[in-house]
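4.2 Preliminary Data

To establish feasibility before requesting continued support, the project team ran the inverse folding procedure on a target of 410 residues. The structure was first converted into the token representation described in Section 3, and no sequence information of any kind was made available to the design step. The complete token record follows.
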């Protein structure tokens, strides 16, 4: 493992961005790099994200806090692009503190981040039901209220973190009337106010000018949420999330200029998964899909839904590299392919959606826990080289198991 060489190639401001439909395993590389950066920042999205990382055999799932928050002493930033469900945030803080990891004193939240209320979740559900009725299917959202919170933000009707501690009763009462009329939703005003009060007690000192803080920081690790194909503008619309999940969305969400960024790691699984509805050209069903799902443990960390599974699509990786300017790949979960007799890789699709595959030989050997590229079976090396050749981005990090140490760094 040559972490020092990797770090010098990353420079002081590195973003980690998913290249597929999320769940690529970004948490692990973040966890590996976090100890070498001063600030770990999340920029966009909300509790729809679910970063799972395994440390000393213990599994942690984060929805709002960046997974880098596990590292004591690091400053943790939640940027202006986020929509924050306060009870979830308090719960995550509490879980970490129960495990001896103090968070509040090092947590900084942008005053411009939006508060996501319980009623946003109710609207999410109401809209999904409406879509199912009208179109026969919904988007398959996480029902965490993400779309409705961003709808409020775009309508300039949202409530931001800067207002924590102010009296919001009148505003919520007005909102309750509208939501009852529009969706038949009853807003639980007292409980919403209680959540705000609980959050005020703990988080008031955390709301601060994160832009100034980031400017002063020596090094910043940006933890992307969701992924490129779920981007509101560049993803598989309308089956996308409601934020900008690319590196530009991350910079915007944090208020960082593009010139600050020194590297961008694209994270992609060695195969591909998707939760929710929408096209998935390389999806495989039946026995093979089930095998990938089982070996990869492909069940949503936020909703527990089984993930749809399929083969790697180089065209998506190339597009992700173009949009985000990836400087490094982190190819995760290589070991999930260990049993495959052959590994089809999609090169793209024609206008009718017919996919062209190149079928690479499988390796039928365990790669679990391999930490040296040269110790990988030849066919696995060939698979990784193929990704590099096709995308012109080096495969600098390769995941060979869920644990922190199960990683090749080259
Ligand atoms: P929303 O973000 O809850 O509105 O969901 C919109 C789409 O994005 C759905 O297909 C979700 O399954 C998907 N999605 C949102 N967040 C994540 C994530 O962190 N990982 C994977 N898929 C996600």
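Position-by-position output of the design step:
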């Amino acid at each position: 493992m040559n972490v020092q060489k990797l770090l010098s190639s990353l420079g002081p401001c590195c973003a980690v961005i998913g290249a597929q439909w999320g769940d690529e395993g970004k948490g692990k590389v973040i966890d590996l790099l976090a100890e070498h950066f001063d600030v770990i920042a999340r920029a966009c999205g909300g509790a729809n994200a679910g970063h799972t990382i395994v440390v000393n055999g213990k599994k942690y799932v984060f929805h709002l806090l960046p997974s880098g928050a596990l590292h004591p002493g690091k400053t943790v930033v939640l940027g202006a692009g986020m929509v924050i469900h306060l009870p979830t945030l308090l719960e995550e803080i509490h879980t970490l503190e129960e495990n001896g990891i103090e968070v509040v004193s090092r947590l900084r939240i942008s005053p411009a981040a939006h508060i996501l209320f319980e009623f946003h979740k109710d609207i999410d559900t109401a809209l999904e039901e409406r879509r199912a009725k009208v179109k026969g299917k919904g988007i398959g959202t996480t029902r965490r209220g993400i779309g409705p919170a961003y709808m409020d933000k775009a309508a300039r009707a949202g409530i931001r973190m800067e207002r924590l501690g102010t009296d919001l009763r009148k505003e919520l009462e007005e909102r309750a009337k509208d939501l009852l009329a529009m969706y038949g939703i009853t807003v639980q005003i007292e409980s919403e106010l209680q959540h705000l009060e609980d959050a005020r007690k703990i988080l008031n000192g955390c709301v601060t000018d994160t832009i100034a803080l980031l400017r002063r920081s020596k090094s910043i690790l940006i933890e992307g949420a969701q992924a490129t194909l779920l981007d509101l503008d560049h993803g598989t619309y309308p089956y996308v999330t409601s934020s900008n999940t690319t590196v530009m969305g991350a910079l915007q969400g944090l208020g960082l200029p593009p010139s600050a960024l020194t590297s961008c790691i694209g994270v992609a699984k060695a195969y591909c998964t998707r939760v929710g509805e929408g096209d998935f050209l390389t999806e495989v069903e039946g026995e093979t899909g089930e095998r990938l799902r089982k070996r990869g443990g492909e069940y949503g960390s936020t909703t527990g839904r089984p993930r749809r599974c399929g083969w790697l699509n180089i065209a998506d990786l190339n597009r992700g590299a173009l949009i985000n300017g990836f400087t490094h790949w982190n190819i995760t979960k290589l070991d999930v392919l260990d049993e495959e007799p052959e590994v089809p890789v999609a090169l793209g699709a024609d206008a009718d959606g017919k996919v062209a595959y190149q079928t690479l030989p499988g390796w039928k050997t365990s790669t679990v826990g391999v930490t040296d590229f040269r110790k990988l079976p030849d066919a696995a090396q060939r698979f990784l080289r193929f990704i590099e050749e096709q995308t012109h981005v080096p495969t600098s990090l390769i995941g060979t198991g869920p644990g922190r140490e199960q990683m090749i760094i080259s």
